[in-house]
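so i finally got all the pieces together for this one. its four components total, 1120 residues if u count the protein bits. some of the lines might not be protein, just check the labels. i wanna see the whole assembly predicted at once instead of chain by chain like last time, that was a mess tbh
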Amino acid sequence: MNSNERILLIDCPDEKGLIYKISGVLYDHKLNIVSNQEYVDPVSDHFFMRSAFEGTEAAEQVLSDLEEILPEQADIRLASNGKRSVVVLATKEPHCLGDLLLRNAYDEFPATISAVISNHDYLEPLVRSFDIPFHHISHEHLEREEHEEKILNALAPYNPAYLVLAKYMRVFTPLFVKRFPNRMINIHHSFLPAFVGASPYRQAFDRGVKIIGATAHFVTDDLDEGQIIAQDVIPVNHSYTASDMANAGRDVEKIVLSKALKLVLEEKVFIYQNRTVVFE
Amino acid sequence: MNSNERILLIDCPDEKGLIYKISGVLYDHKLNIVSNQEYVDPVSDHFFMRSAFEGTEAAEQVLSDLEEILPEQADIRLASNGKRSVVVLATKEPHCLGDLLLRNAYDEFPATISAVISNHDYLEPLVRSFDIPFHHISHEHLEREEHEEKILNALAPYNPAYLVLAKYMRVFTPLFVKRFPNRMINIHHSFLPAFVGASPYRQAFDRGVKIIGATAHFVTDDLDEGQIIAQDVIPVNHSYTASDMANAGRDVEKIVLSKALKLVLEEKVFIYQNRTVVFE
Amino acid sequence: MNSNERILLIDCPDEKGLIYKISGVLYDHKLNIVSNQEYVDPVSDHFFMRSAFEGTEAAEQVLSDLEEILPEQADIRLASNGKRSVVVLATKEPHCLGDLLLRNAYDEFPATISAVISNHDYLEPLVRSFDIPFHHISHEHLEREEHEEKILNALAPYNPAYLVLAKYMRVFTPLFVKRFPNRMINIHHSFLPAFVGASPYRQAFDRGVKIIGATAHFVTDDLDEGQIIAQDVIPVNHSYTASDMANAGRDVEKIVLSKALKLVLEEKVFIYQNRTVVFE
Amino acid sequence: MNSNERILLIDCPDEKGLIYKISGVLYDHKLNIVSNQEYVDPVSDHFFMRSAFEGTEAAEQVLSDLEEILPEQADIRLASNGKRSVVVLATKEPHCLGDLLLRNAYDEFPATISAVISNHDYLEPLVRSFDIPFHHISHEHLEREEHEEKILNALAPYNPAYLVLAKYMRVFTPLFVKRFPNRMINIHHSFLPAFVGASPYRQAFDRGVKIIGATAHFVTDDLDEGQIIAQDVIPVNHSYTASDMANAGRDVEKIVLSKALKLVLEEKVFIYQNRTVVFE
């Protein structure tokens, strides 16, 4: 997305003429559509559209013109083109976090990592070496709610657009999740819905599977049941112990998480019921 | 594509308002857009659009209305929704041909295989067992032009929309190729541009590669240089002889050819200069 | 496996010197080892070895010499080099069955398909066109045990080494399964353990996954819990309905089933507890 | 490889009884074979064997016993189990180097990165943040031989087992290459042999391919012609510019390079003529 580009995201019940009407508003404002993607879900008859356009026109007028011509239930968003803030939560594993920090340091990450929060201090040197603030918030001797309260306090000043759980090994309460609706992204180390819950590589080993994988998904109240953004797998064989699987799986985890974040941060992902519509 | 669905394909130099104008024509004719895909090539500023719509309106009127509003150089096509005829050419290998015949027999192929032509008679029993006409046109003792003349004569009654080269191991003359512009599809048994020409698996073995693949492409005058439609690969290792690679590669070849044909026959492929724009 | 080649398969608790002792027996009999693979499971300390060797020596003497030097619990097999018989069971879907019939017809299948049995007559013309006996054994108005009894009677004359369930959509009773221990191979249309049971593509659609797959496994008493032989996946996206997934998944199903059968029939698969050791 | 484990690597012309004789030497020395892999190249009749064994026996005696029983041309190596030193060369791209530094920092790299050398200073802060020595050796105003002389001087104190070219964008002279026979590993940003030479992503874009990839290989005098260790690919489509391909390709490059290094450093790779035998 170059600096003069904006992203318009619309979803609403489908009806005849939507593309004509929407492109008409953009045309009237003399905006040039750079790329355009639409999708109509055939099951629910729901319409999704993503338009990238160039132009200096005041966004407010475009939005109000669109509201006028679109169905009342329409969800209309106009994404700003600045890099937004994300905060990363991690526990002790460096591979996903390190990969994000590297991309962030070399401008290959479509957002700005404002801070890293961890319930351990193990990753502090790594984070500090990239000059990113690190908050060690131990969960020991704390009720879950107390711990989350501390995290919320640490988060507040950064006002993050998204929370990224880069192998953060604790489950949040529904109350915490509710604070970041559709704004928390997790990486689960299996090709969901296989091996939900703890120790997926151990489960994979026990089942004798020939592929392992990783899943990036939004966090909802139901553990490992959030909307899937991206998944990938790699082959394994009988010679892989559970620990070998974990080692091999790390590369998939970091690539899938990074890919999913890129899609979300470039405004290519709609959440619709229990799935995502992804305009790649 | 259901029976009441039509596909509109447009490509032309990009200009502001194209989507608005095109969708306006469809809206005026009360046609319902089922799916819509656009792409603007950032290098050449060329616009591509594929619209699937429902409606009973006379196609001619839509086309003439579109011609009026589009740039003069625009290429506009309206695909009919009937199954078109294809003729398959093969030599001696059964895997690609057999796979197509199976799909054709069980309505999993978005066209009708009208006939099979081969320069050998080896595959005749297979083709006949599927009740498809088989033409054995040997190339022995014939000049290339004579052989092609015979093939053209055999093809004529079927009036095929596309010729499919399912491991047809002979090279056509430019004169023959010119008769089927953008209408001949070949499967090459390597991930082009690696290993052009003869014996790609032997070449792959000699180079010691760790992946092999297949490429479906349009046929042009330049051997193995036509526009690529689809490619895929599989891993191999040091234990594969050239012959093992050929065996393993067959599955990739047949899947890639079938995938490419599906894309072309469902009108999802634009040819633009030396590449394809594929709306998957 | 060329005609003069034999396969020796040994598995037993590991102990020092096993390879030395086994290769010594082969050396004493002047047999030339063509390829050799060993694996020791680090969890259970169990030893697996597959040796392909050339030689005309009487197999009985080799086996009795090996029995003498190996631990009492050793499982020792010497595979003959002739093509064995398999019987395929199917219901109404042609893709896996058709793929196997094609390979069988062109000697690309490391066994001989002796017959096909189906609970419907839909696939009869396909099977007959390949000159393979077809048995239509309807399950209607029959108790499960009665139906299986009829299948067993039809199977008996073929004395198959393996039963292949090529999209056979019925579950066998434990009694039937017990008749073919480690000799029934099934293709399940999901990447197990995701989506066990009925309608996996529907389940996949409902969960909004971004990959779908297929699993070839041995059949045990526990539905979809048998030892996995091979798995593969393909990417899907939001635009795939459950039916689109089923269409796309067919190619994976047939390739995975065929790959697993090749591994089993070439004697490259050990079953050990709830997993397989596969020497690829 | 745990601390008490050693790796024996043998390659020689094949002859009857090799495995028996070799395993006999290990058995006589009371060494326990943990894993064993052999391969006989059917074209050249050349034998390769890799044995991991446990035991405290003096290595010299094992080696001399093996020399006695093996053909004269045999290449026998006994790998020590300590982490060896590697030096990484890079230019300006951080992704491969950063990935290696991260793995090195968290003990996920089967060697020790002793230093990084670059012809630019751009990556110095990254390297220093990981507390690894960085040598900026500019090539400006220098003859190639002079520049290489300076690199050799900088390398000398580290006595590296391998040189890793992590997107080092200069070509070495044959004289330099000769100093590190079979000890220089490069990552090329295409699936070789497609797109040798400069700007492979530009070439890939121009050819309109649907897959891009990366190749890790040993460096020989012939540019991009060294023995291939590992390769992988990812799908692309018409919407990828050459620059998008470069961005997407980075993930493949870093994963393939890291995978190849792991294989080489764990002594799983034989170089044989123009190919590699890799025991995965």
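Residues 83-177 of chain D form a domain with the Rossmann fold fold (CATH 3.40.50.170).
The mean pLDDT of chain D is 93.
anyway lmk what u think
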